[in-house]
Write a structure and sequence with these properties.
The chain has 297 residues and is an alpha+beta fold. The protein is 44% helix and 18% strand.
Length: 297
């Protein structure tokens, strides 16, 4: 898959495949068990920056990790990602929590797209009793109105929104001790090297195997902790990149109204809750909630 190819970020993975034997010359994909694999960082000039590549991996993981929900009357599982309509992923029922699905009604010979709760579509009023049917045009106007009204708020309110988004995206759970770990690993290597040199020059009678075993165990434990900090650093960089993008959008919308745009909605909102025929609730990235009245309800 192109988006998951580490070469675009300047890295390389060695030994992805291997030859089984010299007789059959069969080439098999290496899963890391049959042969060791090696990750080479900064192997060549990157085509895209690490933050963008990291965000692409997060989005791929989010799409492939969607909950599979097979419903009546559908040819595919709901968990399969659909990029055609942003609201397919974001719009949920305020009564039962089930996602909405886009449908096309034919009224007096004219086709009209609407959104309906999946539970209501498949099971009638058995599980969801009062979820409204939403016209797409009215719904899109309400979503954009919620975004625009938030972007046009005072600087204090906009600052609060940015703070909420920043706290939600960064979500820094702990202190970065990677530098201390690397220093300790270097100290262990230096001590172990000194022990070996002492044996080689016959300056000590016996090699302290217990001490050497303790040092190697500590080093292995520390080396296993380093990837966690590397991943956390990458996540922080991805979050900062997304923050910059969202803030640029909000600042731009303050004085430049926009029509409904699926890409914009995906970037700024986490979900849209249909609370009633007259009101929706837009949940921004980071958790800030904004209620919006539907004018043409």
């Amino acid at each position: 898959m192109t988006l998951a190819n580490e070469k675009y970020a300047g890295n390389a993975v060695l030994n992805k495949t291997y030859v089984v034997d010299c007789i059959s010359k069969k080439v098999r994909r290496n899963d890391g068990k049959a042969r060791p694999m090696y990750f080479v960082e900064n192997n060549h000039p990157a085509i895209i920056d690490p933050a963008t590549f990291g965000r692409a991996q997060e989005e791929l993981a989010r799409r492939t990790g969607k909950r599979k929900v097979k419903q009546k009357g559908t040819k595919t599982e709901l968990g399969r990602y659909s990029s055609k309509y942003a609201l397919t992923e974001l719009l949920v029922c305020g009564e039962c929590g089930t996602p909405y699905r886009r449908c096309t009604w034919t009224v007096k010979g004219e086709k009209k797209p609407v959104w309906r709760c999946i539970n209501r579509l498949d099971f009638g009023k058995r599980y969801c009793h009062h979820s409204p049917t939403m016209e797409e045009s009215v719904l899109q106007e309400a979503v954009m109105a919620a975004i625009m009204s938030t972007a046009k708020q005072s600087s204090d309110v906009l600052g609060t929104l940015k703070l909420h988004i920043g706290m939600g995206l960064k979500n820094d759970d702990g202190e970065d001790n990677s530098l201390d770990i690397q220093i300790r690993i270097a100290e262990i290597d230096a001590e172990f090297k000194t022990m070996l040199q002492a044996i080689a020059t016959d300056t000590v009678e016996d090699f302290d195997e217990q001490r050497a075993t303790t040092l190697m165990a500590e080093k292995n434990s520390l080396e296993q902790q380093l990837p966690k900090y590397d991943n956390a650093q990458q996540e922080r960089e991805n979050a900062e990149s997304r923050l910059d993008e969202i803030f640029t959008i909000l600042n731009g919308l303050e004085n430049h109204p926009m029509e409904y745009d699926d890409r914009l909605v995906r970037q700024v909102l986490e979900c849209v809750v249909v609370e009633s025929k007259e009101k929706i609730k837009a949940v921004f990235a980071g958790g800030l909630e904004v209620e919006q009245a539907i004018e043409n309800a």
